From TrEMBL:
Record domain MacB-like periplasmic core: where: 20-223
Cross-referenced Pfam families: FtsX, MacB_PCD
KW rRNA-binding (keyword) present: no
One term of GO molecular function: transmembrane transporter activity
Localization annotation: Cell membrane
Domain of life: Bacteria
Transmembrane segments: 21-44, 314-335, 356-382, 402-420
Major localization class: membrane
Protein name: Putative ABC transport system permease protein
InterPro entries (UniProt xref): ABC3_permease_C, MacB_PCD, Macrolide_Exporter_MacB
UniProt key word Membrane: yes
Membrane-topology annotation of the record: Multi-pass membrane protein
Amino acid sequence: MFAYYVRLGFKRLRRNPILTGLMILTIAIGIAASMSTLTVLYMMSGNPIPEKSERLVVPLLDNGQLESYIEGEEPPIQISYIDANNLLQQKYALRQTAIYGIASIIESDRKELPNFFTDGLAVTADFFPMFNVPFLHGSSWTVDEDANGTPVAVLSKSMSERLFKSDDPIGRFFNANDRQYRVVGVIDDWQPLPRYYRLISGKATYGEIESMFIPLKAALAQEYRNNGSVQCNGPRSGDGFEGFLQSECTWIQFWFELGPHQSRAALNDYLHNYITEQKKLGRYQRPISFQTYDVMEWLEEREVIGKDSKLQSILAIGFLLVCLVNAVGLMLAKYSARAGEIGVRRALGANRRDIFTQFLIETGVIGLAGGVLGLGLSFAGLALIAQQSSSMETVATMNVEMLLATIGLAILATLLSGLLPTWRACQVKPAVQLKSQ
C-alpha cells in the first residue's frame, strides 16, 4: 500500500499544477536559504583531525612583566623562542613542534619563470606526522636534518608544479632568499578546515595551505623574520636577530602531541614545574599562569566561527519556518479542494487512518520534490557565497552528508508542516460531501 500511495503522490503532482508548483517552490526556497548557510557553518565547525584532536594540545604561557600584570589576564596566544626551544629540547610529549610564518622570494631554474614571493612555515620534522600531512612524493626531513638546520624543504603540490611542472622534484634544488634548498617532499592534496595548526591574528583561517615548509633551525640560521603577529613583553636583552630570539617576545605557535599513556593533567603538571624552574632562573615574574587547549577547544578559544555566521544561520532557519507556514496555507487550500474525493473514499470504506496515511505520503512526495529543487538552489547559493573571498570558496562546498541532510530536512519539514492539513482532510464527513454532490 505504501508504494501505491507513493505512486499516487507523484501522479497528484500533475493535478492543480499551479498550487503544487507554488508549494514546491516555497519549500525549495526555504530549504536552499537554510542549507546553504548551514553548510558553510558545518564546514567551518567540523573537527579537522578527529582521530587525534584530543591528543594535540597547544600551550599558552604567561611570561609577561610584573609591572603590567592584571589579575585574571589571559596568556598570549603564542610563546617566546626561549620557551619553544626549551620545550623542544626537553621532548616531554610523543611529538612536539614549534611553528612560525616565513615569507620568501623564490628563484627557479626555469628561465621562463620570474622570481616570485610566497608564504611558508618554519617547523620541525614532527609537524608532518603530528598533523597527518599526506605526501605525494618523498617525505619530511629527518631529525638529524632538524638538529643541523639542513637547508631542505617540503613543498605544497601547487608550489611543486609551479617550480618543477609535473616532474617528481625530490632531490632537486631551488633558491629561497638567496639560499639553495633541496626538496625532500611534496604534500599531496591537504586542506584542513580550518587551518587549525596556526591560528593567529591577521592570518587566514581557511584557504590553501602554505607553499613551503623548512626546518626551524634552517629558518633561524637564515634569520627569517616572523611573518605574523609578535607581542613583546619587556625590553630586549640584545640587538639584532639574536636579541629578538633571547627576548620575551611571543611569536611562535607551539603544539604537543600526547602519547597514548600521557594525560592533559600530567602535561599541566609538567608545564607548572617548567615555569617554576624558569622562575628560579629569573624569568616568569608573574604568578604562575598557563593554559592548554586541545584542537576543538583551541578553535572555540580563537572564535573560529564568528558570531555573524551563527546569526546568519539563525535567520536562515527563521526564513525556512516562514516558508513552511506559507506551505501550510497552500496545502490547506489544496486538500480542501479534494473534500469530495475524500467523501467518496470514506463512503467506499476507507477509514480516517487510510486517508491520513495517503495524504501524509503525498505530503512527503511534495517535500521530496521541494528538496530536489532546493538542492539545486543550495548549490547556486553556495556558488554566490564562494565568490565573496578565497576563504569562503574553501568552505562553501557541500559534501555527501550535507547533500543527504538537505533532502532529509526538506521531507521532514514538509511532513511536519503537512500534519495540520492532513488532519483537516481526515475530518471530512462523507455524508455531507455526498449530499452536496
